[in-house]
Design goal:
The structure holds 2 protein chains of 2 kinds. By secondary structure, chain A is an alpha+beta fold. Chain A has helices at residues 2-16, 33-66, 82-110, 148-151, 243-262, 270-284, 286-289, 307-310, 313-322, 338-350, 362-372, and strands at 118-125, 128-133, 138-142, 169-172, 177-183, 188-192, 197-201, 207-211, 217-223, 236-241. Chain A has 11 helices and 10 strands. Chain A is elongated, with a radius of gyration of 28 Å. The relative contact order of chain A is 0.09. In chain B, 75% of the residues lie in helices and 0% in strands. Chain B has 3 helices and no strands. Classes of the chains: A alpha+beta, B mainly alpha.
């Protein structure tokens, strides 16, 4: 009784809370021509299922009721009826063909990857996405920005909790955009419900998908293939801009990437490196090594007091830049800029009481990165 | 109609009935009481080949409708 009352209270509370005001059971209709076609298909098949259920259960319940024992019903005793068998084989056949015709029409449209005006390579990483605009010289990573305090219930959650990233994918409105989806480590899946695009990202394979979003806006999605510890923490954000704004974004992003590369030659003070390093650490490293640097169990080692963070600086740089084969430690040389890498290594050597006192210059990292290419 | 084995029409009807998954008890008795299984096996393989070709043509036709 008390449990029931609590449950009712919970149901009422969640119903009244604005966060749940727009909850829905049905799949979203989406914003593209394809997503509308998929939604219509879903509804057609739903209503076919409803009709089948009404007929089948109607006949079944009527039979049970009409032939009940109290009315003296007796079971028929025949072995087969070819006509009835032919009918109950033909009817599902006709229904399935009826479903296959519109489904095939939609699938053929979905798989038509030709004549795209923008090509973006989407690569899944544990646990972030990388977007490379082919032929545009634009390449960046997109990581979760929801603060760890919100995830750990130490702060109230934002509206876009776990659905916000530092660098969203940007595409032009009204243009056919092709996604070449792959992965760098394990299988992920790039899913944006509003576009009706969900494509497996498989290492060594390139899957294609496309969309054409008529209206500018911000659309959010998630990884849809269980890919490890932070599977739920690698959201997708796509910003659809008008052609003019998109062109401007291309120019700005190219300039920003050039500036980042140029920044590798600058010399930063210890304070600057530490401030930047903490920020980078919390985005790129804290998922495994934790904000407090104490790691997680035996899989993700602690950095606080660790041999690498306190030991030879070149070995420390090497493991961050190139990763460690056979472990979850990935190579960060493509993911982070030289400045970010220098800052985060400096932070790891001097945070949480690791007071080694030395700092890494971005130029050192830049040399390593260039040597690797 | 030769009394030793099934007629060609019967053979086709029985194989199609097997493809469809429904056969009357009367025809089943008839098929199992006359001749050998070979004509049915050969006709079954032929019909399978025809079915595969039919599916290939169907897919080509559907794709040509889509302009692929």
């Amino acid at each position: 009784m008390r449990v029931a009352a609590q449950f009712l209270l919970l149901a009422l509370a969640s119903g009244a809370s604005p966060a749940y005001a727009d909850w829905q059971l049905n799949m979203p209709r989406g914003v593209t021509e394809i997503s509308h076609a998929v939604f219509d298909l879903h509804m057609i098949i739903f209503w076919i299922c409803v009709a089948i259920a009404v007929v089948v259960f109607g006949v079944m319940f009527w039979s049970i009721f009409h032939h009940r024992k109290s009315r003296g019903a007796r079971a028929e005793n025949f072995h087969e009826n070819t006509l009835v068998e032919v009918i109950w084989t033909l009817v599902p056949f006709v229904i399935l063909i009826g479903m296959a015709v519109p489904a095939t029409a939609t699938l053929v449209k979905m798989y038509d990857n030709s004549d795209a005006e923008v090509d973006i390579q989407v690569t899944g990483y544990q646990w972030k996405w990388r977007y490379q605009y082919l032929g545009e010289d634009i390449d960046f990573f997109s990581s979760l920005t929801t603060p760890r305090e919100q995830i750990n219930n130490e702060a109230p959650k934002d509206e876009n909790y776990l659905l916000e990233v530092d660098n969203p994918m940007v595409i032009p409105a009204g243009k056919k955009v092709r996604f070449l989806v792959t992965a760098a480590d394990v299988i992920h899946s790039w899913w944006v419900p509003a576009f009706a695009v969900k494509k497996d990202a498989i290492p060594g394979f390139i899957n294609e998908a496309w969309t054409n979003v008529p209206e500018p806006g911000i659309y959010r999605g998630q990884c849809a293939e269980l890919c490890g510890k932070d599977h739920g923490f690698m959201p997708i954000v796509v910003e659809v801009k008008s052609q003019a704004e998109y062109d401007q974004w291309l120019v700005d992003t190219r300039a920003a990437q050039a500036a980042t590369a140029a920044a590798a030659s600058q010399v930063l003070s210890m304070d600057e490196l530490m401030a930047k390093g903490e920020q980078v650490y919390n985005t790129a490293c804290a998922a495994c090594h934790q904000v407090n640097g104490q790691g997680l169990g035996s899989v993700f080692p602690a950095l606080k007091g660790s041999k690498i963070a306190l030991g030879d600086i070149d070995a420390h740089i090497d493991i961050v830049v190139n990763g460690k084969a056979g472990t979850a430690m990935q190579a960060f040389k493509d993911q982070l800029s030289a400045v970010d890498l220098a800052a985060v290594i400096t932070w790891e050597r001097n945070a949480w009481g690791n007071n080694v006192g030395d700092k890494v210059d971005p130029a050192t990292i830049q040399k390593l990165k260039e040597g690797a290419e | 109609m030769p009394s030793s084995g099934p007629s060609f029409f019967q053979l086709v009807c029985s194989v199609l009935a097997a493809f469809f998954g429904v056969q009357s008890e009367h025809n089943r008795q008839r098929d199992f009481s006359r001749g050998s299984a070979w004509p049915y096996l050969v006709m079954g393989l032929l019909a399978s080949g025809v079915f595969v070709i039919f599916v290939i043509l169907l897919v080509r036709w559907a794709l040509s409708l889509a302009g692929a």
